[in-house]
Design a protein that fits this description.
Elements lengths: L1 E2 L4 E3 L8 E5 L13 E2 L5 E5 L4 E4 L2 E6 L5 E5 L6 E4 L2 E4 L5 E4 L1 E6 L6 H10 L1 H8 L3 H5 L5 H6 L13 E2 L2 H56 L4 H23 L10 E4 H15 L5 E6 L8 E4 L1 H19 L9 E11 L2 E10 L10 H4 L16 H10 L3 E10 L4 E12 L3
Parallel strand pairs: 3-9, 4-8, 15-17
Antiparallel strand pairs: 1-13, 2-12, 3-5, 6-9, 7-8, 7-12, 10-11, 14-16, 17-18, 18-20, 19-20
Length: about 425
């Protein structure tokens, strides 16, 4: 066993003039188990000086002076990282508030960065930071802030730097146990949230039932006494109201419970595209292509509302993440239908592509269909890949995507294309 303090070493930072370099910020602290290690090239550039920053040119552990946060920076002499230096700000009442970040050499043979993250998640570092006595920093000026931090203090409920830690194998075991505990708790919370959303959605849909029918009946009556322009306006109202109803319905929905009917996929998509022009984004144009064989075989077993939600997700994501809500005559979405045979099944391939910003290179289909993950810095849209995946699965279909460059005479265009296969029903 080792002591926590013995696994941390003080870095002697070099002096430097004002310069430009990769800057570590609070946003770069680990947010989950996949973001513990920080690569210098992923950081933003900034202007720094040695009065307020440390130049880190080796692999180092970074800890926050105020919050239980950590990161392991993979710096080296060719790829240095500048970290805001730890300091103490004096308040009006004469007390000192610690700010900035501590940087340590970490002894990998005794302590894993993942275990430090585990300690932060458990609250151990928070307890240590709150009870740490920094008076030595002001009374013994030969000590750096980092050295002051490593100076032995009295035991604080078992989490001082003198506390003993287990072997590496035991650390790995505890990390695995803790991650399993986290997943179990997350699953419970997610299940409760889904049930709550489903109930709320069901209540809203139930309450909207009668008004929805009445409004549609009224729109039907109005359409009998107006010209084509008036009918177009009525369709605009009907399509927008239907879209609002779907947005409510999709929250917490179990698409496996939706009743399925035989649907003409060509007819559905033609009607859907016309409806999208009424309620959808104007940032792109839509082109629809269809294999000639669909005149004979074009029926799938599906729920029309679920299909509409699926298309809403794909087109809304193209608007938000592909085109960043920026209108341009070059922005295009292409929807294409093809047929093929998989095994002994005839299937339809619904390909929905856009020439907006491509997916990140390391963004997989698993990332796309996972709730809470997203491919760009625009964040959650409310209409995600998890909904697309659930709807496709409810139809016994498959989902995948490609993001590749397509050469044209004018320029290289990026096309992100989602490919959905659904069995045809004869």
């Amino acid at each position: 066993m080792s002591k926590i303090g013995n696994t941390l070493g003080v870095i002697k930072f070099e002096k430097f003039g004002e310069t430009k370099g990769k800057v570590f910020t609070a946003d770069n602290f680990a947010k989950d188990w996949d973001s513990i290690y920080v690569i210098p090239s992923e950081l933003s550039d900034g202007i720094v000086n040695d009065q307020t920053f440390h130049k880190v040119n080796r692999k180092a552990l970074v800890l926050d002076m105020k919050n239980p946060r950590m990161a392991f920076v993979l710096a080296d002499p060719e790829n240095p990282v500048f970290v805001p230096a730890a300091r103490f700000d004096k308040t009006v009442d004469g007390t000192y508030v610690p700010k900035g970040f501590l940087v340590f050499i970490l002894d990998f043979s005794r302590l894993l960065p993942e275990f430090v993250f585990f300690l932060c998640r458990q609250g151990s570092w928070e307890m240590l930071l709150k009870n740490r006595d920094y008076s030595l920093y002001f009374t013994q000026y030969q000590l750096s802030v980092e050295e002051c931090f490593l100076t032995e203090q009295n035991e604080i409920q078992g989490v001082s730097l003198r506390s003993e830690i287990k072997s590496l194998s035991r650390q790995r075991e505890r990390i695995a146990e803790f991650r399993a505990e986290e997943k179990y708790l997350d699953d419970i919370v997610a299940s409760k949230e889904r049930k709550m959303l489903k109930k709320t959605s069901s209540d809203l849909i139930h309450m909207m039932g009668t008004p929805y029918i009445r409004i549609n009946n009224a729109l039907d009556l109005l359409s009998q006494d107006v010209d084509d322009e008036g009918k177009s306006r009525i369709s605009y109202i009907r399509d927008n109201f239907g879209y609002i109803k779907r947005l409510i319905e999709m929250n917490g929905a179990d698409f496996n419970d939706y009743p399925k009917d035989r649907i003409n996929i060509v007819d559905f998509l033609e009607r859907y595209i016309l409806g999208w022009e009424n309620y959808g984004s104007k940032t792109f144009s839509i082109e629809f292509y269809c294999d000639g064989d669909f005149e004979v075989e074009n029926t799938i077993l599906a729920n029309e509302t679920a299909l509409a939600i699926m298309m809403d997700c794909l087109l809304d994501n193209a608007n938000r993440h592909g085109f960043h809500k920026t209108k341009s005559p070059d922005n295009k979405v292409k929807i294409r239908l093809d047929q093929t045979t998989l095994g002994n099944k005839r299937v339809v391939i619904i390909a929905v592509g856009n020439n907006g910003k491509p997916m990140p290179k390391d963004f997989s289909i698993d990332d796309y269909i996972t709730s809470g993950k997203f491919g760009t810095d625009t964040g959650r849209s409310g209409l995600g890949g998890s909904h697309v995946y659930k709807i496709v699965s409810s139809m016994d279909g498959t989902l995948d995507f490609i993001s590749e460059a397509v050469s044209s005479e004018e320029k290289d265009e990026w096309w992100t294309t989602f490919m959905i296969t659904v069995p045809l029903v004869l």
